[in-house]
C-alpha cells in the first residue's frame, strides 16, 4: 500500500520524503489556499513544479479550477505539460451534480493521468473506473479514484465509508481494472489502519495526522527509560575505566 501526502507544504513533503514514506502528493484548491499559495494559476503552477521536482518520479495531483467541461479539458491538458509526474484532479460531477465523465474520458484518451476526486459512492467510483478503462487506461501508469472516506463518514457513518471502499475494491479486482483507489479525507491515525485494511491502494494523509500516527505515550516513556539506563551504564563504564587508570 502506498502513502501520499495530502499537502502542498514543501517542508512537510521534504520531511516525509526523508522518512522514506512518501509515494506521492495530492493537493486541492483548499489545501493550496491553506498553504498560502498566491498568484492564481501561476502560483499553483510554481508550487506544483517544486513538488513534482522534489518527489520525482512519484506523482503529484493538482486539481482543475473549473467545472465547465471544455475548460477542464483545456486546463487538464495544460497541467499535464508542466511535468512528467502530474496527475490532473477532476471532480466526478460539477457543482450541480452533472457528470464530469466527458472531460475525464477526453483527458485519459489524450494520455493525461487523471485523479477523479470528491467521490462519495460506489457507483460514482465504478463509473469513473469504467470511463477511464474505456479511454485506454493501463496499469503501467494507473489513474486514480479518490474516495473521501472522512466526508462519507461525517454524513453516513464509518460503516458506510468502509462499505464504499470494500465494494469499489472488489469491483476493480473482479474486472481487473487498472485504476487505483486513493482514500482521502483521513482525519485520525486510526483511520489509517482501518482504511488500509479495507482495500485502499493508496492513503493520502495530511501531515498532522501522519505526525500523530507515530506518537504514543508508552513509546515516549520506553525511549526515556532506555536512554536513562544507557546513560547510567555509560557512567558506570567511565567510572570503571577511571579506576583502572588510577591503579
Ligand atoms: C483528497 O484528495 C483530498 O485532498 C482531501 O483528503 C480532502 O480531505 P477533507 O475532507 O478532510 O477536507
Explain what the structure shows.
55% of the residues lie in helices and 15% in strands. Helix 5 links the parallel strand 4 and strand 5. The longest helix is centred in the last third of the chain and has 30 residues. It has an 8-stranded parallel barrel with strand order 1-2-3-4-5-6-7-8, surrounded by 8 helices. By secondary structure, the chain is of the alpha/beta class. The termini are far apart. It has 11 helices and 8 strands. The mean pLDDT is 96. The protein has 2 domains: 214 residues, TIM Barrel (Alpha-Beta Barrel), CATH 3.20.20.70; 32 residues. Helix 6 runs parallel beside helix 8 and helix 7 crosses helix 8. The structure holds erythose-4-phosphate (E4P).
Structure described in brief:
By secondary structure, this protein is of the alpha/beta class. It contains eleven helices and eight strands.
Proportion of residues in helical segments: 55-70%
Mean of pLDDT? 96
CATH topology of the largest domain: TIM Barrel
Q: What series of H and E elements makes up the topology?
A: EHEHHEHEHEHEHHEHEHH
The strands making up the biggest β-sheet line up spatially as 1-2-3-4-5-6-7-8
How much of the sequence lies in strands comes to 15-25%
Low-confidence stretches: none
What characteristic shape results from the CA principal axes? elongated
The number of strands is 8
Query: Structural class, from secondary structure content?
Result: alpha/beta
Largest sheet: 8 strands, parallel, barrel
- Count of distinct structural domains: 2
Annotation field: number of helices:
11
Which CATH class of the largest domain is shown?
Alpha Beta
Distance between the termini: 61 Å
CATH superfamily of the largest domain: Aldolase class I
What's the Cα radius of gyration?
23 Å
Bound molecules: erythose-4-phosphate
Amino acid at each position: 500500500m502506498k502513502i501520499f501526502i495530502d499537502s502542498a507544504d514543501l517542508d512537510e513533503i521534504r520531511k516525509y520524503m526523508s522518512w522514506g514514506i512518501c509515494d506521492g502528493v495530492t493537493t486541492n484548491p483548499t489545501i493550496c489556499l491553506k498553504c498560502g499559495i498566491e498568484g492564481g494559476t501561476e502560483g499553483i503552477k510554481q508550487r506544483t513544479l517544486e513538488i513534482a521536482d522534489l518527489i520525482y518520479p512519484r506523482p503529484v495531483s493538482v486539481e482543475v479550477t473549473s467545472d465547465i467541461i471544455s475548460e477542464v479539458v483545456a486546463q487538464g491538458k495544460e497541467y499535464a505539460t508542466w511535468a512528467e509526474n502530474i496527475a490532473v484532479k477532476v471532480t466526478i460531477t460539477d457543482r450541480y451534480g452533472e457528470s464530469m465523465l466527458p472531460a475525464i474520458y477526453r483527458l485519459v484518451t489524450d494520455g493525461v493521468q487523471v485523479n477523479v476526486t470528491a467521490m462519495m459512492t460506489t457507483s460514482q467510483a465504478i463509473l469513473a473506473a469504467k470511463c477511464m478503462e474505456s479511454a485506454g487506461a493501463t496499469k503501467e501508469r494507473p489513474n486514480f479514484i479518490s474516495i473521501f472516506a472522512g466526508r462519507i463518514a461525517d454524513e453516513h457513518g464509518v460503516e458506510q465509508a468502509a462499505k464504499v471502499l470494500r465494494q469499489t475494491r472488489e469491483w476493480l479486482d473482479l474486472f481487473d481494472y487498472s485504476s487505483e483507489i486513493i482514500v482521502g479525507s483521513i482525519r485520525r491515525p486510526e483511520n489509517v489502519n482501518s482504511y488500509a485494511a479495507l482495500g485502499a491502494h493508496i492513503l493520502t494523509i495530511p501531515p498532522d495526522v501522519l505526525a500523530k500516527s507515530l506518537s504514543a505515550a508508552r513509546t515516549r516513556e520506553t525511549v526515556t527509560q532506555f536512554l536513562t539506563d544507557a546513560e547510567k551504564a555509560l557512567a558506570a563504564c567511565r567510572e570503571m575505566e577511571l579506576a583502572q587508570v588510577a591503579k
